[in-house]
Amino acid sequence: MSERVYIFDTTLRDGEQSPGCSMTTPEKLEVAKNLVEMGVDLLEAGFPIASVGDYEAVQAVSREFPEARVAALARTVPRDIDRALDALDKAKKPRLHCFIATSEIHLKYKLHMTEEEVLEAAVKGVEQARRHVDDVEFSAEDGSRTSLDYLCRISKAAVDAGATTINIPDTVGFMVPEEYAEMIGRVVEAVGDRAIVSVHTHNDLGLAAANALAAVMVGARQIECTINGIGERAGNCSLEECVMIMKVRSDRVPYYTNIRPEYLYPTSQLLARQITFGPQPNKAIVGANAFAHEAGIHQDGYLKNPLCYEIMQPEMVGVPATNLVLGKHSGRHALHERVKDLGYEEPSRDQLNRLYEAFTALADNRKGLTNDDIAALVEQFQIRKKAVRQPAEVLAPIA
Ligand code: KIV
Ligand code: ZN
Question: In this structure, what is the dihedral angle of CA atoms 67, 73, 74, 76, given to the nearest 10 degrees?
Answer without folding.
Answer: 90
